[in-house]
Specification:
This protein is an alpha/beta fold and 314 residues long. The chain has helices at residues 40-49, 65-76, 123-128, 140-152, 183-192, 203-208, 211-219, 260-274, 279-293, 306-313, and strands spanning 5-8, 12-18, 32-38, 55-62, 80-86, 92-98, 104-109, 131-134, 156-159, 178-179, 225-229, 235-238, 243-246. The strands form 2 sheets. A 9-stranded mixed sheet has the order 5-4-1-8-9-10-11-12-13, with helices on both faces. Strands 3-2-6-7 form a 4-stranded mixed sheet.
Length: 314
């Protein structure tokens, strides 16, 4: 157990339907179907591991065929794994619809992923790690407890608030070093954060902010580094005393944006290890990983390899 990156999160079996357009209420469309491994935690671990940085993943699955598939898949990705088998709960699943423009709609049933505690994870994984990555597809209490454990051990903590929990306990941010929401999640944070609580804030208002204005808003979140991912526009980095925008990569064709956020987070964690905690270089690396991921269908299977990243960067 020596992986510098530990991702604790969900394994979700993706059940994906490809259609020309999203169906209207009450409408049935004929499309194509595919299934494969997913889940925000697993996706982020795969994204990091495929860049060549040793990565560990801890999560939970059911005692079912999807759980067996999860173990085999993670083993094939050379990821150190600690998969708990939960009695009476199925492996998590996601119903995903992808339209002709590569946009997606997703419904997730967490199953076993939402039913394990921090105490059930082998502490050696966290002790060996330099960076802990968390998301919200596991029990909220587990996230809070792991952040506190990591902080006590002096680990770098990365929190991706996805899917955003409207009942999020913002006190947990005191134990977060790097906070990575997307545009929608950041809007929810601004609306609900007790130090901001701007109920009128929208994505339209977010896109209209100048760099200094967005930086000032990020500083109110109470985390040393806030990175807002902006899709085709790249990402916005707000540090303690400066901000910058890292543009998205160009010259690619998006066919499926599902998992792009997970690709960014995993790529960023990998970049932090590769580039000596240089946040800007790590974010540039994350933009490449995320950009290349949308050129393929699927989530975890679409994460780019080190060879693909190097070929694009050369």
């Amino acid at each position: 157990m020596s992986a510098p990156i530990l991702v604790v999160g969900s394994f979700i079996q993706d059940l994906t339907f490809f259609v020309d357009r999203f169906p209207a209420a009450g409408e049935t469309l004929v499309g194509r179907f595919a299934t494969g491994p997913g889940g925000k935690g697993s996706n982020q671990a795969v994204a990091a591991a495929r860049t060549g940085v040793k990565t560990a993943f801890a999560g939970a699955v059911g005692r079912d065929a999807f759980g067996d598939d999860a173990e085999a898949f993670l083993r094939g990705e050379n990821i150190e794994q600690h998969l708990l088998r939960i009695d009476g709960a199925p492996t998590g699943t996601a119903g995903i619809t992808v339209n002709a423009n590569g946009q997606n709609q997703i419904v997730v049933a967490l199953g076993a992923s939402g039913k394990f505690s921090a105490a059930e994870i082998d502490p050696r994984f966290l002790e060996a790690a330099e960076i802990l990555v968390l998301q919200f597809e596991i029990a909220p209490r587990t996230v809070v407890d792991l952040l506190k454990e990591a902080r006590a051990l002096g680990k770098t903590t990365i929190l991706n608030p996805a899917p955003m929990n409207p009942e999020m306990d913002f006190a947990m941010l005191a134990d977060v070093d790097i906070f990575i929401p997307n545009e929608t999640e950041f809007v929810t944070v601004v609306r609900l954060h007790p130090q901001i609580a701007d109920r009128s804030f929208t994505e339209e208002k977010l896109t209209s902010l100048t760099g200094p204005e967005l930086h000032a808003l990020c500083r109110k979140v109470g985390v040393p580094t806030v990175i807002v991912t902006l899709g085709k526009r790249g990402c916005f980095i707000s540090g303690l005393d400066q901000w910058k925008i890292i543009p998205a990569i160009t010259g690619i064709e998006a066919v499926d944006t599902t998992g792009a956020g997970d690709a960014f987070v995993g790529g960023f964690a990998s970049g932090m290890i590769q580039f000596g905690r240089d946040v800007s270089r790590a974010a540039r690396h994350a933009n490449i990983v995320a950009g290349l991921s949308v050129t393929k269908h699927g989530t975890a299977p679409a994460m780019p390899t080190r060879a693909e990243i190097d070929a694009f960067s050369s």
